[in-house]
Structure formats: C-alpha cells, structure tokens
Design a protein that fits this description.
Length: about 450
C-alpha cells in the first residue's frame, strides 16, 4: 500500500488557499527515473558490484532523496528493500511484494499520488536465466499529475514499471517478446484514451536483431526519448553498448523509457540522460550493474477535452469516451449531449448519453430502471453528483444525479452518505465518461469539453 510522508506537489496544489478552492494546474513538468537496483541476494548474484548490498541500497535511497526525482521505478528491489526505503523520503511509495522467491522486485517512489495500482505477473518466463524463480512482471498505476481540491478537474498519466525476461538464449528471447507483447495488450485494454509512460528494465536492445517486440512499441505510437533526443530520431541498428558508469548518452542500454500523449493530456520529452555519475559509491565504484535512466517531460491538459478526478472502486473493465469525443472535436466542432440516460435501482447500473450527432456512449449493465432527460439546444450538463457504497466487499457507484444549466436534473440509483459533486469548469460542460464498469458502474470520472 502507499505510504504518505508529507504533501506531494499534486496534494499541495489541492489544498484550500485562503478559503478558496484551488484549481488543478493545466500544465507543468515532471521527471522520471528507472533504476535496476541489483537487489538479488548476494549469495545468488553479486552483479559485479563492489561493496555490501545493504549499504549500497541505503546509498541509492539517499540519492533518490538528494536529487528529488518526481517518479522512480525500481527493479530487482528484492531482499534489501528496507535499506532502500530507510534513506528515501518520497511521499508515496509502493509496499514491497517480498524478497526472493515471493516478490517481483518492482516498486515505485513518487511525489505524486495515484489510483488503481496493480501487479501483473508475466504469462511466460524462461527457466534458463532463472526468471521463473520469482513472479516477475510489470506494475500499473494511474498517477495524478494535478487535481483540484474539490476533485472537479484532474490530470492523469498511466505509468508502467517493467522488468522482462533476461538472457539471449532462444527461450529467453521468446519469453521476452511475449512479456513486451503482454504489456502492449494490457495498455490497449486498460490505458485506452490515456497518456502513458512505460519505463524500466526491458532486457532488450534495438541493435539486437531478435528483440523485435521493443521496436513494435515505437510502431504502435510510443516515443523513446533516448531515440528522440540523443539519437536524432534514428533507431540504432549497430551495437553501441554503454559502459558503467556511462559518461555519454548516445550509447544503448537495456533500460528504456517509452511515452505517448492522449486527447486529455499532451506529453513532450525535453531531456534524456544516464544518471550514472550521480549513483556512485564514495570511492567511485558503481552502485548497480545498470545505468539509471532519466527523462524530463512537459505536459499540458487537453485544449478540447479534460476530465474530473475518479470516484468509486477499482473493479470492472476500463472504458474511455475520450477517443470517440476527440474524433468529434476534429470533425464536427464541439460535442454536445442531446439526451442523458441512466439506469439504476439499489445501485447505479449504467450511465449513458447520446450526442447531437446521434453517437451513443453507454457503460454498465442493463438492469435497473432507465431514466432519460432530453437537453435543449442551449442547455448543457454542468454538474454531477455521485455516491458510492460497498456491495459484496467491493466499492461501487450507487447513485448519480446530473444537473443542467437550465436547473433541471436527472438521477438514478440510491444515494448514500459517501458522495462527491463534480462541477464543470467555467465555459466547459460534461460530454462523456471514463472509468470502470461491468454489470454495474464501479468507477467514474467525467469528460469535459468547451461549450
């Protein structure tokens, strides 16, 4: 679970200032660091790193604190995890999943809060390099770069921490390809419509002919900031391996970063570098057998679409109306709901709307009683109230109430004592949804567009 030590940038921005609700930022910058911390037990692997592993882990954690990175993904954070965290002061940190053979070695340390953190085990591994001895895989979280104090507006980016199968034997390569393809499939299912940053130890090189899956990420719309900023956009085909510590940034390591934008937030990498010389022992020796990698990004909330914070539980399948709504902004101007339709009884079963061009957006099940409201030509959906509760040990949305600019309302489900109100920013209105749903609605956020 997350551990909060103080106030993150996102949380600080969400505080009440002189009694006035603080708005979410609509632009900013953040940086990421990926580092394989060589935390396998010394008896299993020395990694060619001098010194005591516990001491080295503590020194790595202190450097995380010293340089104040915004979001850090670590790999091989196994049996020396406590020493790493003891000297780090990041506000939000994942709890360890355990040492060898129980944990996956993946953890995140961040200045920003997140929702929906998950650990996913690889479907395939190769015993040849010992990768099947631990439940290696990847992690997922939805990081809140910015969030208003009333949760009405928010900016999220999906982060993936990966550590793929190692080795160069046929079985290793097959497993590694499957690992990266598994991440790509997960992104397609769970990050549709969202900005994404994937960073960690891919055990892959562009210059290794058989590592084709890592290049397929570039073909699917991701950008590697190392290729973009250090290689002039040219993916290398000739091997140019990095020394450790590396004092140049054009050589290649297996640790990589990939990113993409979305209709809700634009990302642009401004810097990539190896942080190797920052992570050295007092005598100049390395702290890990991997060069840490760093990237800096500027971000901006969408000009045509934005969203609220999330409300509810982490259940059901992910959905996002953002891609559909983005296509409307580019072809027909500004999307506008013509009709709202909700279904509910004891809980909220579904939410939906029809746009003025006839496009229907519906999420959830078919149970409950349907209620609809037709909006006038100059009438907008400007406010929503949600209530949540527990059903079968799971948090679900129990109630929704929509209010329009004409003072009319539509409600469905059953109100509870745990509720939140979402008000569209001035000049904007609610035009769609993102969240998770199955037979009922489990989690919701609202998508806004300018009037």
């Amino acid at each position: 679970m997350k551990r909060a030590l103080g106030l993150s940038v996102a949380t600080s921005a969400a505080l009440l200032l002189d009694g006035v609700l603080a708005a979410a930022a609509t632009s900013g910058r953040f940086n990421v660091l990926a580092m394989n911390v060589a935390g396998l037990p010394a008896i299993l692997q020395g990694n060619g790193v001098p010194g005591d592993k516990a001491t080295n882990a503590g020194l790595i954690g202190s450097k995380f604190t010293q340089y104040g990175y915004d979001a850090i993904h670590v790999q091989e954070d196994f049996n020396y995890h406590a020493y790493l965290y003891a000297t780090d002061n990041h506000t939000y940190r994942t709890a360890t999943s355990g040492g060898v053979p129980f944990g996956d070695g993946l953890n995140t340390l961040s200045k920003y809060d997140w929702v929906n953190f998950r650990r996913i085990k690889w479907d395939q591994c190769s015993i040849g390099s010992g990768d099947c001895l631990t439940p290696k895989g990847f992690t997922f979280m939805r990081l809140a770069l910015s969030r208003s104090s009333d949760n009405t507006t928010a900016v999220y980016v999906d982060l993936y921490n990966i550590h793929t199968d190692a080795g160069v034997e046929a079985g290793d390569i097959t497993a590694r390809q499957a690992n990266i393809n598994q991440v790509a499939a997960y992104i397609a299912a769970w990050s549709t419509g969202n900005a994404v940053v994937v960073f960690g130890d891919t055990n892959s090189r562009y210059s290794r002919t058989d590592d084709t899956a890592v290049r397929s990420l570039l073909a699917s719309g991701f950008t590697d900031p190392w290729v973009q900023l250090q290689r002039g956009g040219v993916v290398p085909t000739a091997e140019n391996l990095c020394a450790n510590p590396s004092t140049v940034h054009t050589c290649e390591t297996v640790d990589k970063i990939f990113y993409r934008s979305s209709p809700l937030v634009t990302l642009s990498a401004t810097e990539f570098r190896y942080e190797s010389t920052r992570f050295l022992q007092a005598n100049g020796s390395i702290l890990s057998d991997h060069n840490p990698i760093y990237a800096d990004f500027i971000w901006s909330a969408g000009a045509s679409l934005r969203q609220s914070a999330f409300f509810g539980g982490d259940y059901g399948a992910w959905f996002s109306d953002a891609p559909t709504l983005a296509s409307k902004t580019s072809t027909t101007g500004k999307p506008k709901p013509a009709t709202l339709t909700f279904r509910g009884a004891s809980r909220l079963d579904s939410v939906g709307l029809m746009l003025t061009d006839g496009t229907t957006l519906t999420h959830g099940g078919t149970s409950g009683t349907a209620a609809s409201l037709a909006l006038g030509a100059s009438e907008y959906w400007v406010e929503a109230r949600l209530c949540k509760g527990e059903k079968d040990g799971k948090t679900r949305i129990f109630y929704i109430r929509a209010a329009t600019s004409s003072g009319r309302a539509l409600a469905a489900g059953t109100a509870t004592a745990s509720c939140a109100t979402f008000v569209a920013p001035g000049g904007w209105h609610i035009v769609g949804f993102v969240g998770q749903a199955g037979d009922e609605v489990d989690q919701l956020a609202f998508v806004y567009a300018p009037k």
